[in-house]
Design a protein that fits this description.
Length: 345
């Protein structure tokens, strides 16, 4: 049986649409279009919800049109419309949901409101042959959690950040060090030539035996370290900038590695037949973090799966893919579907 689904995503600062098709042979992404908003928010040092909402409202129809064109699919050839219904910035989520409702009302096709986190959590199965249960580490600008995916609709959260998300911490670090946004890649580049041991930065919550993490103390410690070396004209020497970036990245890597080791203990106690640790989120692009996790998996007998970066970061193919599972069991929403700023899995 062939099923074709349109997916729409607008929960943060990417307006995205995709067409995904599934048949007996497997799943194919026919198109995946993403309109990023980085330049719109660059001057503000973070995503401004009002600006994001307006940009989503302006772009979402065009984005859907482009996704259908690229896939060479007519709207009438789709079987359902899947849309991120939360969690996220409410103005953006609303733009996507209203667009999807309009399309569903006009075509009579089923409407499926997808949890954005379920989209990320199912992504490893979109590109790899990954069996349930698998362990998922979601590390992005807005999220940080360990999930055990037991099935396509049962995810168990076994820990996560109690304050900032790692991507947010990378972005704030970049601002403190006078580096450009998005901060993650800029900090990684600066750290490459730095000495990670020069500044003593904390590894928060490692004394706790659970999988929870905290990054706000690390940020404060970094601010103090920076102020200890910043010049009277408020500028940093390149060498200081590199050492601070390297110190921060090393602390982040150590925490993620240690907490992932604990999450693996919990997961491996389930005796999965084919153990897998999968990552998603923009921070999963960070090479030192990726190497630390790859290394940890190798010593634990666990396969490490990192989907291609375009599918690790926000996109609509993952929303369409999550929607396909709901379509298969005829689990639909109706036009009363609401946008939810908070929606734990
Ligand atoms: O998943 P994502 O594209 O968007 C959401 O937050 O949903 O993640 C973006 C985050 C940003 O905070 C960015 O600084 C971070 O991922 N990031 C990185 C790297 N590339 C992107 N963090 C560390 N190292 C990187 N190479
Ligand atoms: Zn996301």
């Amino acid at each position: 049986m062939t099923r074709t689904i349109l997916g729409i995503e607008s929960s943060c600062d990417d307006t995205a649409a995709a067409v995904v098709r599934q048949d007996d042979e497997g799943t194919v992404i026919l198109s995946s279009v993403v309109f990023g908003q980085t330049t719109l928010h660059a001057a503000f040092g973070g995503v401004v919800p009002e600006i994001a909402a307006r940009a989503h409202a302006e772009k979402v129809d065009h984005c859907v049109e482009q996704a259908l064109l690229k896939a060479n699919v007519k709207l009438r050839d789709c079987d359902a419309i899947a849309v991120t219904a939360g969690p996220g910035l409410i103005g953006g989520v609303l733009s996507g949901v209203m667009c999807a409702k309009g399309l569903a009302a006009a075509t009579g096709f089923p409407l499926i409101g997808v949890n954005h986190l379920a989209g990320h959590a199912l992504t490893p199965r979109l590109t790899d042959d990954v069996a349930f249960p698998y362990l998922m580490l979601l590390v992005s600008g807005g999220h940080c959690q360990f999930l055990i995916a037991h099935s396509d609709d049962r995810f168990e959260r076994i820990g996560g950040t109690i304050d900032d998300a790692p991507g947010e911490a990378f972005d704030k670090t970049a601002r403190l060090l006078g580096l450009p946004q998005p901060g993650g890649p800029a900090v990684e580049r600066a750290a490459a030539t730095g000495d990670p041991k020069r500044f003593k930065l904390p590894r928060p919550l490692l004394d706790r035996a659970d999988c929870d993490m905290s990054f706000s103390g690390l940020k404060t410690a970094l601010l103090r370290a920076r102020d200890s070396v910043i010049g009277p004209d408020q500028t940093l020497k390149a060498a200081d900038q590199a050492d601070l970036a390297a110190g921060f990245q090393a602390a982040m890597t150590d925490v993620l590695r240690a907490k992932t080791a604990r999450a693996l203990d919990i997961y491996l106690a389930l005796s999965p037949a084919e153990p897998v640790l999968a990552v998603a989120g923009g921070v999963a692009a960070n090479m030192p973090i990726r190497h630390a996790l790859t290394d940890l998996c190798a010593t634990s007998g666990v396969r490490f799966v990192a989907p291609p970066l375009a599918l690790c970061t926000d996109n609509a193919a993952m929303i369409a893919f999550a929607g396909l599972h709901r379509l298969a069991r005829a689990d639909f929403d109706d036009l009363s579907l609401s946008a939810r700023p908070r929606w734990p899995l």
